[in-house]
Amino acid sequence: MPARKPQPSLEGEHVFDWVIVGAGYAGLAAARALAAKQSSASIAVIEAGEVGENASGRNSGFAIDLPHASAVTAKSVEEGRAAIRVGRYALDELNRLIDEHDIDCDWERRGRFHAAVTPEVAESALKTYASNLEAWKEPYEWLTRAELEARLGTSYYGDAIFTPGTYLLNPAALVRGLADSLPSSVRLFERSPVIEAEFSGPSPYVKTASGRARFGKLILAVNAFSQSFGVYKERQIPVLLFASLTRPLSDEQMAKMGCESSWGVTPAHGVAGSTLRLTRDRRLMIRQGFEYSPTLRTNDARREAARDMHQRLLERRFPQLGALDLEHFWMGWLAVSQNHAPAFGQVNENVYATSCCNGSGIVRHTASGMLITDLALGRENPLIDDFLAQGTANYLPPRPLRDIGVRLTISWDTWRGRGEQ
Domain 112-164+238-335+398-421 has what CATH class? Predict the structure, then answer.
């Protein structure tokens, strides 16, 4: 991405009808929705860093229209249908905004390959997913190893399900475009990390190093970092992910790939497997590494180990390409819940929060940002019920019991799925 001039930081004393903390997909969607529903309201979005430099711009670039369902029961089928309605509501809005504001973000409806390496995972995960797709009456193709090699250029995967509705994109370009096209009634403050928040009392506020914003109502849209505000601490599991991006492939290397000019693979085994993309500018991207991160911190040794693993896994999948040069490496946090439901709702008298995208942030967080405004305004919207079809994120045991349980679960899942790396 080219350089972008960020908006000024928050300085001095301000009063707004609405303050939104976080300029990711949820925060920006909430700001835009509020501006449309309350044209005279004053709205501020306060972002700790620069737009696009956090998880919203550094994810794998999948806008997925379908849920990940793990069982085929009448209840799960109905929950899946509700999730599809919510996902397509968000995708319709993103399509509209990209067209209206001419956002250049490599937005392409390329579909998605949901792939398994081993026969065991194909049997346990892909067949279940195919049954869900049939129950939802959603189109799909089952692809074998040879068919995948012809399309993707790798014989590493044994089987995959292809669904056509997913959009692939450059997420940094999209979130920047959404931020830079906000309505004029919305003020965006960047490089303004909130260091203090008072949710109660006669004059609630959020404070940064050089400013304070008092608010009528607040929407907290910072995903895993909501625990730093004392919100959803007992309901969400912060997870750290790592990703790498190669330099553009040469013409010679591209000639050894499959027939698809760009594509995206999601792992049938979500913990041990790898997310993979061939981007429109001919780079390979891999996202692999899934670890519990209750302190929202890591270290250089762990980062280097993840980067080395990415190098090995890419070259294992594409031995015909020779040594691959990783130009970019990054990490980021997302939040998941134990029951795969969102953390969403009113958390104080005039404070609302949304978190836990459970790995589908571009679509789910866009939807949650729009829907949290209806909740805060007291407007009925049947899509809120769809969004909460699985309920809300359930309570977790306190630390350190939580740490032990989560780490054991992830370690066990990773070991069982080791063949999917």
Answer: alpha beta
Contact between 63 and 108 (Cβ < 8 Å)? no
Question: Looking at residue 319, what is its pLDDT?
Answer: 97
* Residue 3 in tokens: 């350089």
Identical fold, 1-108+170-236+337-390 and 112-164+238-335+398-421: no
**Domain boundaries defined on the chain:** 1-108+170-236+337-390, 112-164+238-335+398-421
Sign of CA dihedral 201, 204, 208, 209: negative
pLDDT tens digits for range 340-359: 899 999 999 999 999 998 87
Q: Are strands 159-163 and 205-207 parallel, antiparallel or unpaired?
A: unpaired
CA–CA dist 285, 301 (Å, integer): 21
φ/ψ of 201, rounded to 5, equals 90, 180
The class (CATH top level) of 1-108+170-236+337-390 is: alpha beta
Q: Assess contact for 81 and 73: CB atoms under 8 A.
A: no
Three-state DSSP state, 85: helix
| pLDDT tens for each residue of 121-176 | 999 999 999 999 999 999 999 999 999 999 999 999 999 999 999 999 999 999 99
CB 206 within 8 A of CB 19: yes
Locate the DSSP E strands across 312-416.
Answer: 326-336, 343-348, 351-355
